Amino acid sequence: MAKMFKFGGSSLKDADSVRNVATILQRFKDENLVIVVSAMGKTTNALEEVIYAHARQDGSAASRLQAIQEMHQNVARELLPGDHDVFALLNDTFVEATWVLEEPPHPNFDYMYDQIICVGELASSRIVHAYLQEVGLPTQWLDAREVIITDDIHREGWVNWEETGKRMESKVLPMVSQPGFVLTQGFIGSTLDNASTTLGREGSDYTTAIFTFCLNGESMTIWKDVPGVLTGDPKLFANVTKLDRLSYREAIEMTYYGAKVIHPKTIKPLQNKSIPLYVKSFIDPDGEGTLISSDVEDLYPPIVTIEQQQTLLSISTRDFSFVAEHHLSLLFKMIADLRLQVNIMQNSAISFSICVNHAPEKIDEFIRSVDRDFKVQREDDLELITIRHAQPDLLQNLRKGKIIFLEEHIRDTVQFVVKEVPMMSRKPVHTEP
Ligand code: ASP
Ligand code: MG
User: Fold this and answer.
1) Are residues 340 and 197 in the same domain?
2) 312 Cα: distance to centroid of ligand 2 (angstroms)
3) Same domain, yes or no: 37 and 158
4) How many angstroms does the Cα of residue 9 sit away from the middle of ligand 1?
């Protein structure tokens, strides 16, 4: 059985960090590993800029892409001899994106996005692969698009588990059973017609979970720049502590509401097969990290997650009739069709409110499409604060300086949808019990 590792962008931001990843992997040189990598550093954001520039036709797309290509070549040059194959492979990878830019912008923006954005993962995996081989770690390179098959909803592809499972078995299993590592890309997949798709931003964790599930991995490890899963975002709160163990359930709750440490879709496939998930530090690989598994005592300290850029939509009928079942089913259908991520919903006699993630185009589309029957009140730039296992003084502290739009208590979860009161800044909050 193989172990599954995921290395994200921050663990691969330059030549030194690639060396560090290789050093970590040396410890596992006699094991079967499947390694999933993201794009290097902030490459995906930079590629998004290329895509927006191309859509705007402002003339800067090609030079922006060129800069990204040069960055990759420079990293490869620091790591590998000048006549290495990797340079030709990198060239081939970027040429395909260049071709897209030579055409007028594709009418389906999301489709075009996926055809260009996948270059980030492809390029980083070429470099890491070449370097691992170079330092004596035999590794096979796999194009994830040949096995991760999704529907054709671009930028938010849903996995076709049946087809993906078959390809894992016929293509990846034989690779895994050979000695050495298998290295592939996170985030990207393809339709049955071979168009590139993606699983949503930060989707590489999810890719790794798909591999782990389909190949019955022994465990999955996400290598991060933090010591493990923390009780809050260290950039926002003082005194956060590391959680040594978490149940799948707790991890799903935390990540669904914005704990950025793991992609929310990651946990479920692992839970279904009771495969342990480790979150460990690539800066301190000896650290114990966090183990996420079943059967953990439900004794947690307060855990705070904050999701920014939320929009609250309060929907009421134009004829003031109650928002009743048939209305709700209409609204739910629109939400599902648009794949809006709803974080909270609340129903009152004449209005139905949802708090959704930042997705301006989808939100506009939603409002347009229900406009005939419903009036929608909209408030942007809100924060969703979720507190698990809260204590009263912590809640008090979190409410300070905020306008509260919506508040909900369900069992051991409290949620606020808030806006900062202007001119008041957040105070450090102690999340320790
Ligand atoms: N590179 C992609 C992103 O930044 C996927 C990932 O990192 O998980 O969104
Ligand atoms: Mg990334």
Assistant:
1) no
2) 27
3) yes
4) 7
CB within 8 Å of 331: residues ≥ 6 apart: 315, 352, 370, 374
At 295, the pLDDT band (50, 70, 90 cuts) reads confident
Torsion of CA 218, 223, 226, 230, to 10 degrees: -30
pLDDT in tens, 221-277: 999 999 999 999 888 888 899 999 999 999 998 888 877 889 989 999 999 999 999
pLDDT (tens digit per residue) in 45-64: 999 999 999 999 999 999 99
Asked if the model's pLDDT at residue 296 lies above 80, the reply is: no
Q: In the beta sheet, which residues pair with residue 51?
A: none
Do 311 and 204 lie in a common domain?
A: no
The whole domain housing 199 covers 3-224
Residue 63, domain member (yes or no)? yes
Tally Cβ neighbours within 10 Å of residue 176: 20
Domain count, the chain: 2
Burial grade of 163 (CB within 10 A; 0-12, 13-18, 19 or more): middle
The number of the ligand 1 atom at minimal distance from the alpha carbon of 121 is 1
Q: How much is the average pLDDT of 361-381?
A: 94
Q: Is the CB of 38 under 6 A from ligand 1?
A: yes
> Does residue 181 lie within any of the structural domains?
yes
pLDDT of residue 320: 75
Ligand 1 pocket mutation, candidates 6, 7, 38, 225, criterion most atoms within 8 A of CB: 38
| Nearest Cα to Cα of residue 419 among 383, 385, 377 | 383
Q: What is the percent of the chain where pLDDT is above 90? A: 82
**203 shares its domain with 309:** no
